[in-house]
């Protein structure tokens, strides 16, 4: 069980015990602090149980727990807006990517579409529309949808979006907590953890998921690596501040790579664990994973930030009320998949979408739309997704694929006997007609 579960069930008395038990040397949970109304406690409650001993990570983790359960966040009326909420074309092209990979992998008779952190469900809805439009191509394939979502509020919104609200809770002994049938007739299941999704040939999707997971922050000092932690500012009541750990912490010892050259580093161990799980599943059962997020390839240093009402927000003020996020380090994800799957990318969003045929799709939609307002909206959303100054350059696509998808296993022995493997769409031009 996670800390989240633990905090919901334990009594206040036990909570205080727990609070003290993790106080060793850590400034946030200093026993000297009056527990009831201190900002640390308010923050702790807002972050819903991430241990202060993990320093900044519990604060950044509020996106998957307290923040999402309380505010929901995604969409024009929320704190931030994501690509699928901007344009239907985004999800449609991702739907085409899965069909293209399914064909390149020999059209297996069944696959699971597994989305991590589906938000309002918009992306899955756009993908399912493509699957429906290409029903003749997929007619012999048994498709099911599996959504990994921790937020009860968002899973309800997804259920309405995808099934019209026709869902039922699953019996206790089933790994899914809810199930239903999509408006297009495909079975859908909800889980809290990727480990609960049944094994099987799967296409995974993580769009703006990894950036929502908690990070650790580190700083190189003359005395070696130190962890950036959260403390109560003794000068200003009810105000949090960042401090450096006085000595090395378990995290500095475990998460800093020996070859690290940067002076400030952010590491998201939970992302590493999830990528390892995805890679193991793909290696064993087949499939592919598409990850899309803002991020870098092991070069950036300080990216932890908050958003509230579409504006930058101080991560230390009013915790639990803002969307907190950090850029995804794709070089770290690549390391975590190493040995199990091949990886492609990161490639910039505008290159990926261009390769997937966004220009052609835009032209078709423009021709089919009768009114000026719709055409303006289509052009505006295209600009948001593709403009290098907007989302075009800072968002990246990254894929995990079985090794044999990129190279024939016995290619070295008999290179001439094998037909060339089709290029992976998005990272190359889409060949599917
Ligand atoms: C930024 S939203 C992305 C939404 C959607 N993919 C989109 O692009 O519109 C992050 C999503 O991840 C979910 N989430 C955050 N942490 C999670 C976790 N540890 N496990 C499963 N879902 C999580 C949130 O509840 C939310 O649905």
TrEMBL record:
**Keywords noted in UniProt:** Methyltransferase, Mitochondrion, Transferase, Transit peptide
Cell location: Mitochondrion
**Any one Gene Ontology cellular component term annotated for this protein:** mitochondrion
Composition bias, kind Basic and acidic residues: at what positions?
408-417
Q: Does the keyword Phosphoprotein apply?
A: no
SUPFAM superfamilies the UniProt entry points to = S-adenosyl-L-methionine-dependent methyltransferases
Enzyme class, spelled out: transferase
The UniProt annotation puts the region (Disordered) at 408-433
Please verify whether the record's keywords include Transit peptide.
yes
Q: Which GO terms describe its biological process?
A: methylation; mitochondrial respiratory chain complex I assembly
Gene Ontology molecular function? protein-arginine omega-N symmetric methyltransferase activity
Q: Which InterPro entries match?
A: NDUFAF7, NDUFAF7_sf, SAM-dependent_MTases_sf
In short, the EC number is 2.1.1.320
Catalytic activity reads:
L-arginyl-[protein] + 2 S-adenosyl-L-methionine = N(omega),N(omega)'-dimethyl-L-arginyl-[protein] + 2 S-adenosyl-L-homocysteine + 2 H(+)
One of its Pfam families is Methyltransf_28
Q: Into which family does the record put it?
A: Belongs to the NDUFAF7 family.
This molecule's function is given as: Arginine methyltransferase involved in the assembly or stability of mitochondrial NADH:ubiquinone oxidoreductase complex (complex I). Acts by mediating symmetric dimethylation of 'Arg-118' of NDUFS2 after it assembles into the complex I, stabilizing the early intermediate complex.
Q: Mind telling me what this protein is named?
A: Protein arginine methyltransferase NDUFAF7
Organism (species) = Serinus canaria
Q: Name the gene behind this protein.
A: NDUFAF7
């Amino acid at each position: 069980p996670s800390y989240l579960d633990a905090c919901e069930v334990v009594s206040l008395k036990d909570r205080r015990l727990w609070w003290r038990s993790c106080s060793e040397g850590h400034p946030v949970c200093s026993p000297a602090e009056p527990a009831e109304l201190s900002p640390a406690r308010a923050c702790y409650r807002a972050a819903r149980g991430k241990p202060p001993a993990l320093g900044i990570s519990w604060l950044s983790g509020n996106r998957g727990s307290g923040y999402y359960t309380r505010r929901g966040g995604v969409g024009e009326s929320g704190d931030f807006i994501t690509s699928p909420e901007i344009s239907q074309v985004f999800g449609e092209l991702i739907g085409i990517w899965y069909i293209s990979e399914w064909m390149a992998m020999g059209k297996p008779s069944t696959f699971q579409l597994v989305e991590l952190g589906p938000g309002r469900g918009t992306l899955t809805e756009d993908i399912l529309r493509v699957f429906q439009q290409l029903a003749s191509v997929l007619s012999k394939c048994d498709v099911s949808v599996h959504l990994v979502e921790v937020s009860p509020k968002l899973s309800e919104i997804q259920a309405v979006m995808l099934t019209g609200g026709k869902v039922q809770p699953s019996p206790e002994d089933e790994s899914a907590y809810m199930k239903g049938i999509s408006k297009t007739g495909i079975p859908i299941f909800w889980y809290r953890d990727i480990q609960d999704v049944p094994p099987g040939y799967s296409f995974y999707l993580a769009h703006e998921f990894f950036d929502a997971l908690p990070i650790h922050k580190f700083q190189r000092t003359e005395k070696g690596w130190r962890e950036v932690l959260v403390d109560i500012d003794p000068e200003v009541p009810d105000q949090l501040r960042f401090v450096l750990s006085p000595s090395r912490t378990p995290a500095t010892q475990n998460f800093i790579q020996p070859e690290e050259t940067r002076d400030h580093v952010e590491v998201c161990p939970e992302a590493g664990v999830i990528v390892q799980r995805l890679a193991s599943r793909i290696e064993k059962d087949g499939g592919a994973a598409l990850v899309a997020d803002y991020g870098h390839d092991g070069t950036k240093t300080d990216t932890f930030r908050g958003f509230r009402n579409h504006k930058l927000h101080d991560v230390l003020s009013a915790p639990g009320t803002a969307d907190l996020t950090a850029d995804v380090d794709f070089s770290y994800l690549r390391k975590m998949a190493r040995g199990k799957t091949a990886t492609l990318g990161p490639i910039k969003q505008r290159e990926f979408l261009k390769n997937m045929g966004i220009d052609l799709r835009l032209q078709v939609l423009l021709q089919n739309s009768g009114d000026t307002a719709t055409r303006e909206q289509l052009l505006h959303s295209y600009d948001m997704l593709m403009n290098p100054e907007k989302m075009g350059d800072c968002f990246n696509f990254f894929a995990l694929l079985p090794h044999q998808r990129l190279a024939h296993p016995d290619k070295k022995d008999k290179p001439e006997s094998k037909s060339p493997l089709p290029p992976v769409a998005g990272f190359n031009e889409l060949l599917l007609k």
